[in-house]
Structures are given as structure tokens and as C-alpha cells.
Specification:
This is Septum formation initiator. With 97 residues, this protein is mostly helical. The protein has 3 helices and no strands.
């Protein structure tokens, strides 16, 4: 003979199933879920790349600053910067643009 489940047993199984679906959804889509983790990893990688680009720019600027300092004066760089900023040329030079 087939046993019939009581109404309370059906409700309990249904609630357990719904709770399982909710927790599965929260594990994937929730604020601490897998999708958020993947998004954070992508953002982290992007920020690391930006940091590296900024560090390269800082290093380049430090090098230029050092080359124009009193301790180490690069006359060619100084001449280049002065010409660019002031727009000066020597009488024997020709400008090609």
C-alpha cells in the first residue's frame, strides 16, 4: 500500500526545497557570492594595472627631476626643456614640423 505524506510533511519538504533554492541563489548572486567575487577580482586586476602605469609615470618623472637637479645636471635635457618651454632656437637651426 502506498503511504501518503501528510500535509505537514509536504509543507516541510517544500519549505526545505525553497530554502535550498534561496541559499543556492545567494551563494551565486548574493553580496558575497561567486559573481561578486569574480567582479572584485576583475576590478582588482584593473586597479593593479592602473597602479603599475602610475608607478611607471612616477619613475619617469623622478628620473627627469633627478636629471635636472643640482646634483646631476643633464645639459642636453636642460637645453631641450628650455627650447620647448621658451620656444627658442639657435640661429643656425632649421625647424621642421
Amino acid at each position: 500500500m502506498a503511504q501518503r505524506l501528510s500535509l505537514s510533511a509536504i509543507i516541510i519538504v517544500l519549505l526545505a526545497g525553497l530554502a535550498s533554492l534561496y541559499f543556492a541563489f545567494a551563494a551565486v548572486q548574493g553580496p558575497s557570492g561567486l559573481m561578486r567575487r569574480i567582479q572584485l577580482q576583475a576590478e582588482t586586476q584593473e586597479l593593479i594595472e592602473q597602479r603599475d602605469e602610475l608607478q611607471a609615470e612616477v619613475d619617469r618623472m623622478k628620473n627627469l627631476t633627478r636629471r635636472l637637479s643640482d646634483d646631476y645636471l643633464d645639459l642636453d635635457l636642460l637645453d631641450e626643456r628650455a627650447r620647448e618651454v621658451l620656444g627658442l632656437i639657435r640661429p643656425d637651426e632649421v625647424i621642421i614640423r
